[in-house]
Amino acid sequence: MRVLVFGTFDGLHPGHRFFIAQALQRALGSSGRSSQRASAIANGEISGAGDAVKRAVPEGRYERGELYVVVARDENVKRFKGRLPEHPADARRRAVQEMFPEAHVYVGEVDDYFLPVLTVKPDLLLLGYDQKLPPGVEIADFAEAGIEVERVKPYRPQMYKSSLLREEKK
Predict the structure, then answer these.
(1) How confident is the model over 160-169, as pLDDT tens digits?
(2) Among 19, 62, 117, 143, which residue's Cβ finds the most Cβ atoms within 10 Å?
(3) Are 77 and 8 in contact (CB under 8 A)?
(4) CATH 3.40.50.300 given to domain 2-169
């Protein structure tokens, strides 16, 4: 299964790690305790997603699916959120790639938000529990393209929500 996620991923915190780990588990076809494993990755109890995924997915099924992560460009973060991210796009991309070496991680497009969808042709688009789509993009656009859309449940949103973590830094 091809799974696609988008995000800013500024300051890769446990909520981000949980979200991406859930997407990776879905891509690789793991079931059962995937939520527990994603929580362990989010909490740093398992060093790196690779070990967790290898234990979660039986031998021979490891190559079954793919996860694509699109990291938002700085100018798009500014346009949508009204502020620049703390870390530049390539640093955010590298952080995600280092944490999830199995994933294909890219910096997104400036204007054509649907281009990664057309390029990757995912089976599933996973959204964060509170993630908004870019202006002009609707859930129906994905359905028309034959792509299932789901939201991942939050991981301790009272602790690991990016806006709350930014407030704590002030």
Answers:
(1) 555 544 455 5
(2) 19
(3) yes
(4) no
Torsion of CA 133, 53, 12, 83, to 10 degrees: -10
3-state secondary structure the chain: CEEEEEECCCCCCHHHHHHHHHHHHHHCCCCCCHHHHHHHHHCCCCCCHHHHHHHHCCCCCCCCCEEEEEECCHHHHHHHHCCCCCCCHHHHHHHHHHHCCCCEEEECCCCCCCHHHHHHCCCEEEECCCCCCCCCCCHHHHHHCCCEEEECCCCCCCCCCHHHHHHHHC
Task: Please classify residue 128 by burial: count the beta carbons closer than 10 Å to its beta carbon, then call 0-12 exposed, 13-18 middle and 19+ buried.
Answer: buried
Domain ranges, ordered by start, for the chain = 2-169
For β-strands 66-71 and 104-107, DSSP reports them as parallel
79-134 pLDDT, tens digit each: 988 999 999 999 999 999 999 999 999 999 988 888 899 999 999 999 998 898 88
Q: Which residues, 6 or more positions from 138, have their beta carbon under 8 angstroms from its beta carbon?
A: none
